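Hi there,

I know you've been waiting on this one. I reran it after we fixed the sequence typo, so this is the corrected version. Both the input and the resulting structure follow.
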Amino acid sequence: ITPNSTNTYCFETAGDVYKPSIKPCENTQAVEAKRIELKNEAGFNAIMKLDYTQQKPDGSRYSKTITTDETILGFNRFIYLPRDAAPGSQMTLKINGIATLPGGLLSTTFYQDSFDSKCYKVWGGFLNATAGLCVASSTAQKIKFKNNAGVFARLSVNYLDQKGNNQILSGNSISLLREDMIEMPQRQPGSAWYIALNNTNSGKEFYRVDYPGDITGDLCFKAEGVDGAEVGSTCDDTVGVTSGETRQIRFQNDAGYDAQLIVIYFMDEVIGGTTVTMPKTLTTGMINGLGGKFRLVTIPKNTSKGMAITISLQGSTTVKNDIWSTTLPADFAASPQPCFKVTGTLFDPSGGKCNQ
């Protein structure tokens, strides 16, 4: 319908408060506006909200929220593309469960011109409430998240859509020993993107990995640790760069305390036409002792020539937290793999090379 249209239109409503419907009168046809659907397949009530910027006829802008009522098992709701949204404005869609675990179930941001018809569903119970796409694509890139930490945590993806708009897609807030998965939407070809792990209660981001645009294939990440000392890694215990030509440094915790490995290396970057040597830092985070846990820290093969790589071992709540440090040459050999470890107790911490 155009703003200056002189045609007459007729629509009729049907159904009840749980399953309302609307259609053109007398079996005529009309093109339906873009919409987002919520299906409730869960043992709890759920609500869907859309936050956006409204633009008045005089050009003024205000924050506005569209909220569905509480849906129960077996029912669905729709939110249509708001006609009063400010051009180019960002929108945030949220799905929350009533009386479920904290943090909300799903959150995704997009822009008004990239609003598209989608279907989301909720399932599970109060203690394992979950939300996601109604139908998962067999070809889409999937990102899995395992929470082995003593906190509620969430996986999120920050990327550029095919129109170049920045988007954030957040998965479910999950508790210890639960898993979640995000189906990666279509990205702008060649654009960089990143994933992050967050403590849902505090909002703290405790792990992040940046990716170039050519990364394909399914990915898997996990969280470990406790509140205030969360750590993240890939599911195969890798921290750092996971694409291109790389080298790895192994860290083992054979001690009776939590400890971490910190790696500082340098990369040549072109800034304003000038090549500048920039420091980069990677850390394993404090990983538990007593279990012989390890991490593989992955760094690029082409670090800055002649710039040594610093290795530091640190303990948590020990009598000497800065336990040990050394350097590796910029061109250190990837094989045999350099390996460092911590040993001892809180009162007698020590560290060094694994073969010492």
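Quick highlight: Residues 298 and 331 are 14 Å apart (CA to CA).

Best,
R. S.
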